[in-house]
Known about the structure:
Strand order of the largest sheet: 2-3-4-1-5
Mean pLDDT: 79
Oligomer: single chain
Helix content: 40-55%
Distance between the termini: 80 Å
Number of strands: 10
Structural class: alpha/beta
Amino acid sequence: xxxxxxxxxxxxxxxxxxxxxxxxxxxxxxxxxxxxxxxxxxxxxxxxxxxxxxxxxxxxxxxxxxxxxxxxxxxxxxxxxxxxxxxxxxxxxxxxxxxxxxxxxxxxxxxxxxxxxxxxxxxxxxxxxxxxxxxxxxxxxxxxxxxxxxxxxxxxxxxxxxxxxxxxxxxxxxxxxxxxxxxxxxxxxxxxxxxxxxxxxxxxxxxxxxxxxxxxxxxxxxxxxxxxxxxxxxxxxxxxxxxxxxxxxxxxxxxxxxxxxxxxxxxxxxxxxxxxxxxxxxxxxxxxxxxxxxxxxxxxxxxxxxxxxxxxxxxxxxxxxxxxxxxxxxxxxxxxxxxxxxxxxxxxxxxxxxxxxxxxxxxxxxxxxxxxxxxxxxxxxxxxxxxxxxxxxxxxxxxxxxxxxxxxxxxxxxxxxxxxxxxxxxxxxxxxxxxxxxxxxxxxxxxxxxxxxxxxxxxxxxxxxxxxxxxxxxxxxxxxxxxxxxxxxxxxxxxxxxxxxxxxxxxxxxxxxxxxxxxxxxxxxxxxxxxxxxxxxxxxxxxxxxxxxxxxxxxxxxxxxxxxxxxxxxxxxxxxxxxxxxxxxxxxxxxxxx
Length: 594
């Protein structure tokens, strides 16, 4: 007799032998005992988790000949149970709906339901991959499925229940099967290895269960391969080579290099893995799962039941969770998910994998925009007022603890409700002074490798250099003249210029409405860029009406003041104007629109 694979040899023959689907088997057993069996069932769920197996067990329980009525557990030895298990029962018909999906096949099935079973109690139709049936065929089956003869039971197994019409689902009892838990698959593999007298290490079985991804059949199929490829004993290394996954600990090494922002180490490790024959897509998928587990360990703890991994893997994700913050891990996972998706249709997969890993290293120097607006800004080490000098990359341990970090939302709350002098020393220490706008992007700011702890309240305010004042004025006016802003240039040339700290204020003899019409957003951005370049630091430009300007009567406002005034006083708006040169264009008062 030819060899029978483990998935078929040890296929459950009773409800009690099915693992991971207790909610289904318990309901079906109770329905049989109470005499409340239905005429139609839909079994849906992941591949290889027991849908067709449960359908066969239910068929055996309904037709078991040890009793005059259906039994909750089939005997497995009577003629009916034996024939159903072998797949040659006359009254239990298994149909592959992927090939018999047309309306003609369903018409033949409908005609056959009129005849009573040849020997058993029920005539049972098991339709595997039922979602493949066409809409016309489902419509032909609709009436028969709604009111079948008393001796007919339909069982539909599918991996895509959403593709089955709602009219069909409403006429059947729907059981949703769950992915089998990691521990249950490991226990099943250990039990089968004991029956087959195959010695196996715990790490090897855990690796097989993880590769099964919740499917018992997939895990058993890989176990068959592992037994054939091993030399007497299953060990982790032989299973790893068979599956083609990265060596143990390499993912932790990759993330350690990311924590150190060591691009050279990352590229060297990728080269070594690909030289050994690792698949870029498979490796990216491994890293995605590893990052997801690290986030779970960070949020729920390394011992959480949400982690379906081995004990050694728990230790690795725990160490990585200690190195990075939750925000960093979420950002890394998002980058790798996008990289994994791109690898599926890219030609040069190695280059895209390397680019994705380098993005992880660069993401270590990013600062959330919320933190920037709340006052915790970045600084380049060793920066001067004029020419920032890059600092050498500091040496870090193999896996250093996560850098001191205050949540952007907590920092914003503290900034709004607590004076800066009352902030704790830890909160003040992580708020470096501001850097040049060249490092500011629309979503994040690049941070230096190491930021000195400078208390904001003790930072010296830059003073205006009299020698550079005329240079600043001439540079701004020349820039406006080059851009064709002659009217604005004339207005500013006759104005009163003043530099206070990082703010350039020009008082002009014009009304606020004339200033708004004359100063466009492009002109203001040009002035800010020019002033920042001359001063060697981020600058803020304000054009205000002077003493000779004609005052403008304010419009009627609500009880809380004008909308523009209230918006201009918002701290977030002020920070946006200061950092990005933003300006208020439109104000919508939602209270008045209600």
